Amino acid sequence: MSDLFVVLLIIALLVCLIVTVGGLLLYSGLLTEVVIKTGPPPIKNVTFAYKFKEGSYKDCGAAYTESCSIGPKLTSIAVFYDDPKQRPPEKCRYVVGSILCEGEEKPDEELQKLYEKFGFKLFSLPEVSHSVTTNFPCTTPLSYVLGAYRVYPTLSSYIEERKLCAFPTIEICSSDVTNYMVPLSRQTDFFVPEMKEEVKTDVKEEDSDEDRGTDITGADSHSDVSSVSGGVPWDSRETSLAASTAASLASSLPLRDVMDANEDIKHRENSDRGSNESLGSGSSFEELDMDQEEGEEREEKEDGEEEDVPQGDDGATEAVELVADKKEPVGDGEE
C-alpha cells in the first residue's frame, strides 16, 4: 500500500511540474503570434552607449547584463550586423548597450561619463521612415530566449519572400516588450566605427582574393553575386517601400558593394540637393507622370497638324500656292 502511495505521489508531482513548466512557457509567450509589418520604426534617431563584440550571438547575454547593471532603468539596445547562416558564428559582429536619449535630446553628462568609465562608447543611430518591424512580449526572463527562437525565423522568411533590402537587425528591449526592427534604408549609417573598420578589412581581403581568382577573360571566379547586374539593388538612401520590395536580399551582397553604393548615393544627393530642395520624396514619380503627360500632348498636337495638311493632288497644289505666297522678293525682284 505504501509503495502505491509513493508511486501516485511521484506521478502527481510530475504532473504538477509539467503543468507548471507549460504554464510558464505559455505565459512567457510560447504561443504568441508574431506579426511582421513594414512601416515606421519604433524609435527615431537615438544616442546610445555601446560595446562592440565579436562572437556567437548566444553569448550576448553577458553584455546585456553589464549594460543593464550600469543603467537599470534605461532601455537596452543591440545591433546585429551579420547573418549566422553566411558567416561563422564565432566571427559574427554586434553591439550591445543602453539608450541614453532620443530625438533632439542630449545625453545626461554624468550618465555618459559613467558608461565611458566602464569602456562604453557613444553612437547615434539615424532616423528612417520605413523598416521591417515586429515585437514580442517580455513577461519573464524566459521571454528573451523564446523571442529569439520565435521572431528571427519569421522575420527572415518575411524579408526573403518579399526580397527586401533590409539589414542590420536591431533589438530594443524595454521592461514589457522587445521591439525588433530592420531598416530598409541608410543601412550603413547604423554601422559603428568599429564595424566600418571591419568592413574595410573585409573589402581589402575580398579584393586580394579577387585578384588571385580573376581568369583571363576578366571575370571574377570568386564573386558571390555574379548574377546580379548593376552592383546595388537600390538607388536612393531613403528608398520607398516599392523600391525596397524590388531589391534583392542585402545579405547576399558583399559589404564592398553596400559601402560603395552608399558612397555613390551620398554624392548624388549632395549634387542634387540644391536643385531639388523643394521636392518631396515622391518628386521623381511626379516628374515621370508630367513627362508622360507632356509626351501625350505633343503626340496629340502632331496628330492635329497631320490632319490639317492637305492631301491628294488638290492639296499639293494648295501647298505650292501657300509657299509661293509666303516668298518675298529679294534684291531686285529675284526670288
UniProtKB/TrEMBL annotation:
Transmembrane intervals: 6-27
Segments of skewed composition (Basic and acidic residues): 265-275, 323-335
Keywords: Membrane, Transmembrane, Transmembrane helix
Sequence ranges of Low complexity compositional bias: 218-239, 276-285
Acidic residues: bias regions: 286-311
Signal peptide: none
InterPro entries: Reg_factor_effector_dom_sf
GO cellular component terms listed in the entry, alphabetical order: autophagosome membrane; endoplasmic reticulum membrane; nucleus; replication fork
Region feature (Disordered): 197-239, 265-335
SUPFAM superfamilies per record: Probable bacterial effector-binding domain (SSF55136)
Gene3D superfamilies xrefs: Regulatory factor, effector binding domain
Biological process per Gene Ontology, one example term: protein-DNA covalent cross-linking repair
Protein name: Testis expressed 264, ER-phagy receptor a
Organism, scientific name: Acanthochromis polyacanthus
Lineage of the organism: Eukaryota, Metazoa, Chordata, Craniata, Vertebrata
